[in-house]
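Researcher: I'm preparing a figure for a lab meeting and need a structural model of a single chain. I don't have an experimental structure, so a prediction will have to do for now. The sequence is pasted below. Please return the structure as tokens so I can convert it later.
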Amino acid sequence: MIKSLSTLKKILKYILPLVSKEFNLETFKIYLLGLILQERWFSAHGISKRTTSQSLWQIYHHINKAINWQKIFYALANLLITMFFGSNWYLVTDGSPLRQEHAKYRITKKAFVSVKGLKNVPHNELISLSLTNGTVYIPLDFRIWTSKKVTNPSEYKKKTDLFLAMMYQYIIKRIPIRTILFDNGFAAKRILRWLNAHGFIWVTRLKSNMNVKYNGKKCKIGDLELKDGESAVLTISEVEGYVKVVRSNYKDEIVYIATNQTDMDNTELIELYKQRWEVEVFHHESKQQLGLENIRMRNWQKLQNHIGFVCLSYAILSVLRAEFNGTISAAKHIIHEEIYQIHNAHERLVLKLAC
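Model: Understood. Here is the structure written out token by token.
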């Protein structure tokens, strides 16, 4: 057995006992391996047209049992932190739209809601909290944001509310990593206050029009007229403590990168913020390689499970790619080559993992 399959077998042996007994374990394994092995449209195809195996689209429509994804993700995180001991781990969080082109409905907790007659209803959005060392990427928690236009008022949550809910869970799970990277969409003052109060080192981007106080005078960040690579130590109203802000050109855009660690070197701060890009890679590859947006259901629980399977598949594939410092696509290709791309590929994979 090649090293990649040996690693995959080890991870499966570790996480499968964590799956609830209420969820059929064989269905869980087939769905997970289907994402890992096949291309992003696997859920609309059959595993094998030449055998009597249950087709994947049938499994796709039977993933409506509750799964404790947090339990699985956090257990996997503890395992991988041990496996990759000594790595520089950090947290990242961000949101990404779950686009369904031309969709006339939105999936919400209450129902499959029609948007007919409503204007500019945003797509659902995935809000995730992940742990990464730059190669291995482990989603720890995720929430699905739904537009206020289609959500019951009593159930509606802002994206920042969902972020804080995940952070509360993170504190409870007692993962020791305390550095977190995020974009300005989550740089709300109450989030910065919460992170300060709980001992986190945070790195984020601030908007140029944010009101700050520098040398005792109130102004906006953009008014400081910093040059590229220059920094200033200042305060943000309603946020206790000093903040360091450095100006940088990032992705052909002027950005103001900030941290609550005022003694951090400017270059180090800029390079650390760039590590946030891992979450963008996660969103892109999950959609292109694992079918994150291939949403063919009308049920909230099924949507939750589909996203959970995609996140778990990505985490596993990121471990496999660490063995050769490649991409998620390359990790899938290596497994595909080993299984030889035949119609009963899934059955071959199961047999090899049983060796």
